[in-house]
Amino acid sequence: MRYAFVTTLLTLLTFNLPVQAQTTRELVLQGKDLLTDGTNRRDIDKLLEARAIFEQIPEDDSLSFLAHYYAASVSSDIANIMTDRGESGKRREIRAYINYSIDNLETTVEMDDTFAEGWGLLSTSYAHKISVSPLNAIGLGRKYNQTMSKAIELEPDNPRIILLKAIMDYNLPGIVGGDKERAMEAFNRAASIFSEEILEDPLMPSWGHEHAHARIGITYMDRGELEKARSSFERALEINPDFGWVLNDLIPSLVELESKL
Q1: CA–CA separation, 163 vs 261, rounded Å?
Q2: Can you give the pLDDT at residue 21?
Q3: CB environment 129-168: b (16+ within 10 A), e (fewer)
Q4: Contact by Cβ (8 Å): 57, 24
Q5: Overall pTM > 0.85
Q6: H or E segment at 146?
Q7: Residue 14: CA atoms inside 13 Å, Cβ hemisphere, count?
Q8: 58: number of CA atoms within 13 Å, CB side?
Q9: Residue range 231-256: average pLDDT?
Q10: Per-residue confidence at 261, pLDDT binned at 50, 70, 90?
Q11: Does residue 216 register a pLDDT over 80?
């Protein structure tokens, strides 16, 4: 009887011990893992789960600028996924995700105006907003140029910034500054820098290497150089075997083109 009482008491005491709270660093890493998984799977629910983690980080924490950056990355990815799916009927929802991204990235660079990654992603968010707010194209285009220039000034050899600039160069019409050949050179430059990149802090942005090869593949596919496109997509999957955009979208599109030869 006495033994049973002691056991019950110990159980109650153990049950009521406070659970150690996660550190901010642990939260960022957890959210970053979910962000990577959600992006790979193109899973909006998983991405929103990641965003909820970043939103838990207090504003006065030293890593708050990263929390805003990654929360913005989540919303940017969701907006891109919805755009790629052709969900034109959800224009207002897409705009809301883009606005969330812009708001958080503006906060990021206010907190740390030397954070080139924040300026780079902010520039592409301004550019993306043009697709849902075309009447504001002139002002948003000006903001894109200013923020991208700031990012390049801070870190001209950052492969993610080179990649983001190249994506815009590839997709913009020539009349407003686009240049597909320049973009292809930049995609290859980014891929080369990525291959040598060593990230010392796992909290910092680490995405992009597989995206560079995916973009190279798209360029080859658009040129009709399908063998080179396949090699580029396969290289992207060597870097990231779970890269859903390549697995489920780009390679099926390539197979369709190959079947017509």
Answers
A1: 31
A2: 63
A3: bbebeeeeeeebbebbeebbebbbebbeebbbbbbbbbbb
A4: yes
A5: yes
A6: helix 137-154
A7: 6
A8: 6
A9: 97
A10: confident
A11: yes
